[in-house]
Specification:
By secondary structure, the chain is mainly beta. The chain has one domain: Beta Barrel (Elongation Factor Tu (Ef-tu), domain 3), CATH 2.40.30. Helices cover 7% and strands 54% of the residues. The protein is built from one helix and six strands; from the N terminus they run βββββαβ. Strands 1-2-5-4-3-6 form a six-stranded antiparallel beta barrel.
Length: 96
Amino acid sequence: MPAARFAVQAVGEITHPGRVVIGDVLGGSVKVGMWASLEGRDKGDGWLIAAVEFADNPSRHESHIGLVLTGAPPLQQLREVLPPGSILVITDQESL
């Protein structure tokens, strides 16, 4: 059973921590140490959540959540896998 679902708005990169998926929690809660995978993908095909951050854009009056992912593919590849509107399933363990 998923702990949460997450709607992807954008994918980016922070110099030190790595790849970040920005979006909104649709339901449930997300914590460091949980696993994120694309809805409908095979078991074990996900990424460890290393950090959960606020991703605010005051000029656009937007507030989102950023998930820093460990073990994510290079930025361009991750953007292809997670286009805007994608849904991530968040679970407590790797075997989804």
